[in-house]
Amino acid sequence: MRPLTDSTPKPLLMVGGKPLIVWHLEALVSAGIHEVIINHAWLGEQIPQALGDGCRWGVSIRYSAEGNVGLETGGGIVNALPLLGDAPFLLLNGDVFTDINLTDLVQRGLAQEMLAHLCLVDNPEHHPKGDFSLSPQGLVSDTPSLTFAGVSLISPALFTQCQSGSFPLAPLLRRAMQTQQVSGEYHRGFWLDVGTPERLNYLQQYVSQKLS
């Protein structure tokens, strides 16, 4: 996303007149979620400066700082576990934009025996091989077929054997898939990984059309 992110963290890039992360906050409130933990790394101090405690959007925000280097998704979650508690939580990547129905996702919750529930989408052009596949029974496996949308329900138990440090989330999910403890669903609607200036421009056009 450089040069845009040389001075601004990606979640604070503007989309339709407001920061990308504010779209997420508004979607979370619509889904009945009012307690939010935000992990931040590169230029991350700008995020609490911009969002404060979240009261203007009807949420209570707490922050988990990872430093400018970052801890990747898995390490970032472990770092935030003291704030998250013992119940399953909704994980939403800050650099995606989607119309996934978070209300339905939260209301269904995570089945007792599951460690994670993933939203999967069609493979975008920049990621043609995909990440995982979805069985007719709703179980996710490690065979690449669809792309992980960056929206999921996660049980803290997924991280039981993890130590602090920087590591990705995917290997933990793959290990849980081997014991059939990852469920999923296929989303047919809008989804975009806002990872380049070109995709950000595309999103600007999409949002402008939706708002007009």
Question: What keywords describe this structure?
Answer:
single chain, 212 residues, alpha+beta, Spore Coat Polysaccharide Biosynthesis Protein SpsA, Chain A, 26% strand
Question: Can you characterise this structure?
Answer:
This protein is α+β, with helices and mostly antiparallel strands and 212 residues long. It has a single domain, classed as Spore Coat Polysaccharide Biosynthesis Protein SpsA, Chain A (Alpha-Beta Complex), CATH 3.90.550.10. The protein has helices spanning 20-30, 46-51, 72-84, 102-108, 170-178, 197-211; strands spanning 14-15, 18-19, 35-40, 60-65, 89-92, 96-98, 116-121, 132-134, 140-154, 182-186, 191-193. The strands form four sheets. Strands 5, 7, 8, 9 and 10 form a five-stranded mixed beta sheet that branches. A two-stranded antiparallel ribbon has the order 1-2. It is built from six helices and eleven strands. Strand 8 and strand 9 form a beta hairpin.
Which SSEs are present, and which pair or pack?
Layout: E1 14-15, E2 18-19, H1 20-30, E3 35-40, H2 46-51, E4 60-65, H3 72-84, E5 89-92, E6 96-98, H4 102-108, E7 116-121, E8 132-134, E9 140-154, H5 170-178, E10 182-186, E11 191-193, H6 197-211
